[in-house]
Structures are given as C-alpha cells and as structure tokens.
Amino acid sequence: MNDIIVIGGGLAGLVSAIALRKAGYQVIVIEKKTYPFHRVCGEYISNEVKPYLVKNNLFPDHLAPTQINQFWLTANSGNKAVIPLRMGAFGISRYALDLHLYQQAKAIGVEFHLKETVSEVIYNNQGFDITTLGGKELQAKFVIGAFGKRSVIDKKLNRNFIQRKSPYIGVKYHIKTEFPNDVIALHNFSEGYCGLSKIEGDRYNLCYLSHQKNLRTQENISEMEENILWQNPHLKSIFQNSDFLFDRPEVINEISFEKKHPIENHILMAGDAAGLITPLCGNGMAMAIHAGKILSDILINNDLKNRELIENTYLFAWEKMFRNRLWTGKKIQHLFGSPTLSNFAVSLAKYTRPIASFMIEKTHGKPF
Ligand SMILES: Cc1cc2nc3c(=O)[nH]c(=O)nc-3n(C[C@H](O)[C@H](O)[C@H](O)COP(=O)(O)OP(=O)(O)OC[C@H]3O[C@@H](n4cnc5c(N)ncnc54)[C@H](O)[C@@H]3O)c2cc1C
Predict the structure, then answer these.
(1) What kind of architecture, by CATH, is found in domain 2-362?
(2) What is the pLDDT of residues 117-162, one digit of tens each?
(3) Are 227 and 213 in contact (CB under 8 A)?
(4) What does the buried/exposed string (b/e) look like for 148-168 if buried means 16 or more CB atoms within 10 Å of the residue's CB?
C-alpha cells in the first residue's frame, strides 16, 4: 500500500507530489505522456503563485521567464483597450515548466510511471486499487485526481460534465514575431478569442479558444483562421507577419466549463479535474498550483489520517478559494462570443478602467 498516488503529472499533480514527498510521504505520479511535451495552454501564469514557487525553490529562474504587466483587449472591429495589470504574470512554456517541475520531483524521490494511463480507480474501505491500460495494478491510501480537463477516468466515474458534449476547441502555436515583451493581448473574433504573450527565449505563445461551429463551417483550421480569426485586423497582422515554429498546431477539443465536484468516490481532485476556469481569465495554471498546495497542506497537517476530516476540509477550502472565480470567468466569457458584445466589452474596459481591473481581480487570487 503506497501513501499517495497522483494521477496526472501536470501542474496540480507535480506541485502536490513535490510537497507531499518533501513531507516524507511515499508518492507515485502516473502520467500518460512523457516529458517534455507541449500542451494547449496560453502559458501566461499569474504572479499570485510566484511567492510559493520561489519559497519552495520551484521558480524556473534559469529559464528567465518574461514579466508581463500590461493587458491589451481587442474586438473584432480592431477597437483596443490597454489595461495595466496590478499583480502581473510571467510567461513560460509548459514544455519547459512541466519538465522543470518533473526534474525537481524526481530529484527528491517522487516515483514516476510515465506513458501509463490510469483506466480504473476503485475505492475500498482501506484505500484505492488503481489499474492502468498497460495492466499495472497499484494500491494507495490516498489518490489525487490531477488528470486535467477530461480523462477516461471521468467516464469511469460517470461524472456529470462528461455526459454532455462540449462545443469548444483549443489551438496553440509558438511563434516568432514583433510584439512587446511585457504585454498579454486578448484578441476577440466571432465565437472565440486568441491570446498572445511572450514565453522564454525569443518565442511567443499564440493560443485560441473557438466554438466548434467556426470549424464546422470551414474546411480546416487554417481556413477557419483566415476566414474568421483574420476579421480582427490585429490577428490578421499577427498571422501574416510571424514565423510559426510548429509543423502543425497543438489542438484539443471537447473543452468543458461545466461545474465539477472536487471530490468523487473519495478521489481528491485538483486543478482542471476539479473545475476548469475559462482561459480568458489566464488563471487555470495558478489555480492548479494553488489547489496542489492546499490539498498537500491538508494531507500533511492530518498526517494522512481521518479521511472524512481531510475530505471535508479540502472541500470547504476548495469552494472558498475557487468557486467564485470559475463562476465569474464563465459570465465574462459570455461577453466575448458576439462581435457586438465584445466591442461593447472593449469600450467598457477602455473608458472605465477601474471596472476592467475589478473584473480581472475577481478572476484571480491573492499571492500565496
Ligand atoms: C485554450 C486554453 C488556453 C489556456 N491558457 C491559459 C493561460 O494562459 N494561463 C493559465 O493560467 N491557464 C490557461 N489555461 C488553463 C490551463 O492550461 C489549465 O488550467 C492547467 O493546465 C491545469 O493544470 P492541471 O495540472 O490541472 O492539468 P494538466 O496540466 O492538463 O495536466 C493533466 C495531466 O494528466 C495527464 N492525464 C490525463 N488523464 C490521465 C490518465 N488517465 N492517466 C494518467 N495521466 C493522465 C495528462 O497527460 C496531463 O499531463 C488554458 C486552457 C485552455 C484550454
């Protein structure tokens, strides 16, 4: 019987694994891919996580992440608002950040099972039996579900959100372009929005979320970009004047923002597995790191004893910390579907900056 098995080695999984291992527990991470790898993500991380990463020697100083402190919001029409970011953020690729955290975790003795997909998690009164697609069978007292937005485990658990099809796709590129280092831009287009910000080296992240109907009405992704995204003159200029560094974009579909429960069948969910915030907030990575911290603190404080107390404490802390952010993010996303509404949102941000700053703060947490 292992102490803790973490399913999924993204930010939530790696951060909780590191904290628990440092506290002396035996921790296994099961990850279906192998590091390093690209993920669909805007790669803009709110500075609220910086003190925690620095304090725990996890901040990737050696990669010199870009500091971002200005936000540009544009509408399909080209209308643009510029908003200073009080807390700010840093930009770094998931390729580099996840690899860095994986190496840190390995160095302190976290055991990794890579290229293994967990297919089943069964709770018995003592703990959990875990099976992987490759036929491995493992046992643990506690299981952390850090398997991201959507996984085979969600289907096995029959979670509510998985019953409904979700209409969103995400597309990511790394590009070289002319753009300020300290700006995150969010460019709206019909039924979607696209972020641009600098990551490490001389690269920029270009990542968008689109309703699937945009793709359905076009032959393929590049036609969709030309015919729909390029209606925003800022996006047209970026696509026409940049070097695209991937052979093909990273693409994911079925992105769901439906409500999830942070504990299912005694599995403690962290990060996107507990709830995905709309990407326009730029807060999913910070929430994943924060959830990993909160959860590992609770497990450590209770020395892995008293499951009921651990579950109740985590549930309460999770709801208090994240539920409102998720709700606000969903409401703001409604403003960004139609060209008229997004133009209104940009004008609002332009002429009433305190409202824009207030909305940004509502989707972010405090530094921890
Ligand atoms: C289009 C888009 C843009 C975004 N932009 C930003 C942004 O700019 N800033 C920001 O803060 N957030 C952003 N986000 C959100 C952010 O990417 C996520 O919130 C964050 O990655 C969540 O981390 P996580 O650890 O929960 O999950 P992940 O990082 O997704 O990690 C989950 C891991 O679990 C593994 N896994 C899944 N199932 C299994 C299984 N059965 N067995 C074993 N392993 C498994 C996966 O391979 C993966 O490595 C964006 C999201 C989208 C969709």
Answers:
(1) 3-Layer(bba) Sandwich (3.50)
(2) 999 999 998 899 999 999 999 999 999 999 999 999 999 999 999 9
(3) no
(4) bbbbebbeebebebbeeebbb
Give the residue, by CA position, lying nearest to ligand 1 atom 29.
10
Say which residues have a Cβ less than 8 Å from residue 24's Cβ, sequence separation at least 6: none
Contact 333, 278 (CB under 8 A): yes
pTM of structure: 0.97
DSSP codes joined into one string, 289-325: HHHHHHHHHHHHHTTT--HHHHHHHHHHHHHHHHHHH
Mutate to test the pocket of ligand 1, among 285, 287, 326 (most ligand atoms within 8 A of CB): 285
Scan for tokens 């992987």, then name that residue.
Answer: 132
Which protein residue has the closest C-alpha to ligand 1 atom 5? 42
pLDDT-derived band at 20, boundaries 50, 70, 90: very high
Query: By the 8 A CB rule, do 63 and 200 touch?
Result: yes
